[in-house]
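Box 3.1. Reading complex inputs
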Amino acid sequence: MTRREGSPEPGPVGGGRLGSRLDWRQFRLTWLAFPGSALAALLVGAVMLLALGASPVTGYRALLDGAFGDSYALSSTAVKAVPLLLVGVGICIAFRANVFNIGGEGQIAMGALLATATALALPGLPAILLIPLTILAGAVGGGLWGAIPGAFKGYLGVNEILSTIMLNLVAVQVMNYLLAGPLHDTTAQSVGGLIPQTRLLPESSWLPILKDGTQLHLGVLVALLAALAVYVLLWRTSFGFRIRAVGLSRDAATYAGMPVARTTTLALTLSGSLCGMAGSMLVFGSISHRMVTDGSLTGFTGSAGFNGIVVALFGGLNPLWTILSSFVFAGLLVGGDAMQVVTGVPSDLIVALNGLVVVFVVSVEFLRRRPRVAPVAIPIEPPEWSAEHVEQPAATRGSA
Amino acid sequence: MSEFFTTAILTATIASGIQLAAPFLLASLGETLGQRSGVLNLGVDGIMLLGAFTSYYVALKTGDLRLAVLSGIAVGAACGLATAFISVTLRAEQGISGIGVYLFALGLTSLLFLKLVGTPLPIDQPGKIEVPYLHGLPLVGKTLFRQDALVYLAFALVPVVAFVLNRTTFGLNVKAVGENPAAADSLGVSVARTRYATVTIGSALAGLAGATLLIDVGIFQQNITNAVGFIAVALVYFGAWRPVGVMLGSLLYGLTQALVLSWKGLGIIPVSLSDLAAAAPAVITVLALLTVARRFRQPAALATPYTRGG
């Protein structure tokens, strides 16, 4: 709290930035912050399991077995990780530009809808054409749904957190309308036409299974390639440099002559495209091979739009670490179902733990305080920041 | 269409619209307080979920609605303290930590609901309260003056919040802290204490909003809020950080929902199109955000944690 601040001695902030010597405190915080956050969340989870009368040891063992125990479990986890990874790297792009894309859910749905409509409209195409086309359609659908708040933010200064949330609400209604109306399954086999779902998609649009006897499909490779591509984009291209520059300081980027508004718009558009691709993966990699919902966005996305944020944050907004992070969180989700079977504690526990991880990770950002490296902490830093003026709050020194 | 324009159906629709607006209003009034002091609390939807579940559980176990509402408020206030700790003391990025709070509450309430409530039973709903004399007025009487106690409370809070913000020392401190925390701090106003207060009060109102929603629905279900809390945050922008504007936004949502329900029931619009119609307020809100972004300025320190001397 502000009252307790006031220590005149400068904190150990500048060391790592200047690269003069390895700052151990900085090192510990950087490398232990994320595992520490996860561990803390799992500890809270253990307490909750105990409170609900289940043994944490049994519960977590079931979770690990269900997620990583055998090759089938691993393949299920990998499949679950596909939308998380795509959304996650999309979030990396947006957050690196300091644009908070909370609209992943809506972008997933819009991408899935456009991809589904494409596949239904072109049933005759061979797989080699149709599959890339559906992935592209997903990217276009999600991209459009990201471009709207992107342009609003870039050119008109509309808060993107709110506009993306609102567009989620529009997307859910559009999805419900299309799945109960124009795209609705009206064939004789459908269960009285009561379920809001599409017809069975043409077989040439199904994502090919990579390993017999599992659900491991082509989407896994697509997501990995996308993650690599986003890494290259962010750190090896001038466009990626502009995205990160805008994210670090809009003023500095403007002053340097960068097209800030356009970069912001494109960042959110690309972010939406990746979410849209996740949507098409969810449809064409599904077991039912159709798009189906229960009337809510979560019913279709499985909250991938929110969980993707968790994954990206946990991956430190780095696409390569996000690969690992998406696998870990997919494991939690898959393992959560196994835990539910063994202990009787609903897998919603995992959703709650995901939330805690988010809170812990962004709270720890405050302890890390690497002003020019960690973009999540950037808005906190005033432009005139310099090491001489920094006062470390008493709480920081104490808890480190 | 003509069957819609009968007095009975019109009054019923407007009355239910006003009732549906109450949770939006309570949550967004609370959020207004927080945002005026510079804190963006994006966890409102989660806090509403926790408030709604607590109220449901207490009402189910004790049958005492008053106690249920009070416990909803108490849980909201506790969440507010936690949120303030995260945003003010730990200075976490507010746009993201709120999503964390939401996910946590979503998971926790579903978990507790499935685990603690065996067979979900509806709770007793309170009767409508008629305002003496006024409820007999033609048209207005049955729409405005025959509502739940909590609905009256929600609308009565509009002038109260406006008064507190504009006519009290606390309100001036709140606005000062939201506009220029360094200046406020240098004049001896505790930025942290002010923000803790607004976020806690605001979250208590979010808890109350959850309880109101619960009592309106009569039974808890997973994700019962269905993004009401997120909309409430947007309504604060919609209303340009003013209680009256926030009230108009809430009414827009409540009335549109009631209208769509009523038209769907009467078969004026087909069921499938009603989905699109239900998206109308969200579209209007996005357009309103455009206008507000051009015409009004948000509190200068919104979503910016304060560091003395920083």
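In summary: Confidence is low (pLDDT under 50) at residues 1-21, 370-400 of chain A.
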